[in-house]
Amino acid sequence: MRIALAQIDMRLGDIEGICARIESQARIARDQGADLLVTPAPLFGGTAPGGLIEERNYEHALLSALADLAGRLAALGIDAVVPAPVSVEHMPVLEAFLLREGRTVPLRSLYASRRTGSLEEMWFPPVFEVAGTRIAVTYDPARDMSVLAPGCDLVLFPLASSFDAADEATAAVASLADGHTVGLAREKGVWLACLAPVGAFDEAVFLGGSFVLDDAGRCVAAAPPFEEALLVQDIERGKTLPALEPLELPHYRREAWTWEALRLYVRDSVDALGSTGAVLTLAGDLPSSLAAVLAVDALGSRNVTGLLIGRSDMRTPAQEALEVERTERARTLAQTLGIRLIERAPADAARLIDRDAPALGSALARERLEGLYLEDAAFELGAVAVSALTKTDFALAAPLAAGGYTGAIAPFGDVYLTQLEFLARERNRAGAAVPAPLVTLNAVEDRMAAIVAAALAGAPAAAAYRERMAHLMAPLEPAQIDGVLEAHLERGLPLDEIPLAVTAPDAVALLLMIVRAGEAARRRLPPAPMVSAAPFAERRWPWQLAWSDTGAGTEEPLTCAALVEAEGARFAEAGEEHGRLVRGEIMGLVARMLGIPTDDMDADDVEGELMRRMQQAFESAAEEGHPPFSGGLPQAPGGRPQGFSFFSDN
């Protein structure tokens, strides 16, 4: 059997266009002798199709298009597996449709209905056959290999997890060198074909790099990452085929793969917004300069425009010298990249607002005006405005940044400021694009100082309080600030578990408070690609929230489970005490009936005295040779139990 993996990039949800592209890929695959074509998972619905599948006519449009496509593929004589989201019991499920002989077969739903019909059965990998090869489909090999049906020859793995810089496994073929997925195929003794999508689907980004492993876990075929490809490979059980050497496989490098993810995001986002060009402000700093290089890599220099805006609030010769240096650096960068540069004269915010000093403050008013310049340039050029805001900006300076126009997309919105230096170094390996003075710790410190200043300026607090905030933030290095944010956002650590909290607890608490307070403003910032484990696109807290996680201190953390356990213990103890009381009352009643004085005795003493007298009575009766009473008490002559005054001769 010969399989073809269509590593293609299409506009998200363009049902007719996607089907036409699948047909063209099927023709090429059939010409190469393929029996089965597999398409990427996120094409029709992206990675979060919940709202889409709730649309009344989405499923009809999808299935109608797939039915037409199935007929055309039948004429070509090739089958296809097409993943697409559908609604099952009002829940989004990534179905795997088999297009065969003009029919559209929902494999997962059909397989579940043949078992018990429950939604839980949807998670078992369905099995079908093509050209004598038994094939299973899974979206999670690590989970499903253990429940794989016996006799499977090949496992299809359409990758549905988007790129995460911290998770090497999301880099597809680049993860094989470190053993990811290889052991699964080897241990189960089956072939495994991974189809890795390529391109951006909303905030999710995929990097390609599809591959095929034989039943010994060796990579026998791989598609290149970062570009479209059609990978065709023979599947032959029990036959050893030539394999790629480890040195032939791409190795994962976090900065290189992150850069390519951001490039794909800019390229596909600009296209989705109906444009071919981008415009961005050149501020002469590291983020804006690196954003310009990224835009050029994604779109080409002819499609990128830089905007240089002069500043009029220079008060000292030193400030004027810095302004000259800034503008010259921006002009040099534009010339180096070969992009068009538009220069705008500085505007006097106070004059425009018609007051001596804007209530916003000169720096804030200037940023608002620069945003207006950027928006006007984007409208004039029909271009997409690209923002240079980083994840550090999103976390700390959202209230200030959201007050004006900041752009249509923010490619660095999930990348911390301190990571930009390493991205710039990685990009400069392919050619010195980012000016050397900006690829330094000093440049990072300058930008971090501006972010901290923006965070303090955007804080709705009294001047004295802002001075206290500035005092707490002043000693922190950029790496310390981003380290606190990473620990809190990516790893979910509370204040008392963040390492810096040992030496600077107030500063850490302040950073966490600023992050929490910026939630409402953050939602007004431009969208950003998701390249981390905890992007802000997926982290939605109540924007009216007034609580910040300051840790539990030295106290033992309270949990609901502990309360349940404590209440259970209390009920058990209360039951035992109740039992003791009941037993005591019964023993007291019996003791009084038997003439035992109980005024100065507790329940245990009463019970002990009762048992002692009963034992004594038994022993006395035994010594005198009296027969036992039917109830177990010894009898005196005449039938009265011996040793107990309660019982009379009657």
Oligomeric status: single chain
Number of helices: 21
- Terminal-residue CA separation: 102 Å
Query: Strand-residue fraction?
Result: 5-15%
Rounded radius of gyration (Å): 37 Å
Unreliable stretches covering 5 or more consecutive residues: none
Biggest beta sheet summary? 6 strands, mixed
Strand order, largest beta sheet: 5-4-3-2-1-14
Backbone structural class: alpha/beta
Kindly state the number of beta strands.
Answer: 18
Outline, from the CA principal axes? flat
Task: Estimate the mean pLDDT confidence.
Answer: 87
Question: What would your notes on this structure say?
Answer:
The chain is of the alpha/beta class and 650 residues long. The chain is built from 21 helices and 18 strands. The protein has helices at residues 15-31, 50-53, 58-76, 107-115, 141-144, 182-188, 254-272, 286-299, 317-337, 349-353, 362-381, 391-396, 398-401, 417-428, 441-457, 463-473, 478-489, 505-517, 519-522, 560-593, 603-624; strands at 2-7, 36-38, 79-88, 91-100, 103-106, 127-130, 133-137, 154-158, 191-195, 198-201, 204-207, 211-213, 219-222, 229-234, 278-281, 304-309, 340-344, 384-385. Strand 1, helix 1 (15-31) and strand 2 (36-38) form a beta-alpha-beta unit. Helix 8 packs parallel to helix 9, helix 17 crosses helix 18 (505-517) and helix 20 (560-593) crosses helix 21 (603-624). The mean pLDDT is 87.
